[in-house]
Amino acid sequence: MGHLPVLRSEHPNRLVMDYGQLVAPVLIALARAWREDPEGVGALFADIADRDDQARTEAHLDGLGEGEHARDQLADQLLAEVGGAQFHLRQTCDRHAAHQARRIAEEARRMAGSLDAHAHWITVAVETAEEERTARYEAELLHLRALRDQLGHAPVAATLTASCQHCNCWAHHANDLPCHLGCGTPGHAMTERPAARQSA
Fold it and tell me: Is the pTM of this model over 0.70?
């Protein structure tokens, strides 16, 4: 059994921290405590559940409600009664203690490497999305300038609408013109309308 949570991948780009092997000893201790005093432990469980319900109703208070604090106090009390959830490393000066410390350090290094790689992937994904948005915006500007030139530099009155639901292109289009990014849906999210030429 490891000493740290298990970091595993549910999806190529989705990580999960699994605390199962750390929680199991606590559950076993709770089961033993309940067997010895089912009424007392059961009542404490019920109190914790009641305080948790109260904390959920006070979620909008951002931790300032009484329910969350009372729930945590009761949970700490129950954990203390079953021996706590602490794991003490070997305190002897021998090879076993050194091996234990190295094994935990190796677990931590593996987890740190996976988390660093995941953080790097997220950073690259965010930067790529920002670059794509900038490219779409610049392409829209070029399209509008070309449209203005085709209309003989007529004044253009522009309003904004939501982005195109078909191709997610920028929401700056000429009314009743197809998406120049290849969506193929005529007139979608078209928000530019050439103003009427003013007579001399």
Answer: no
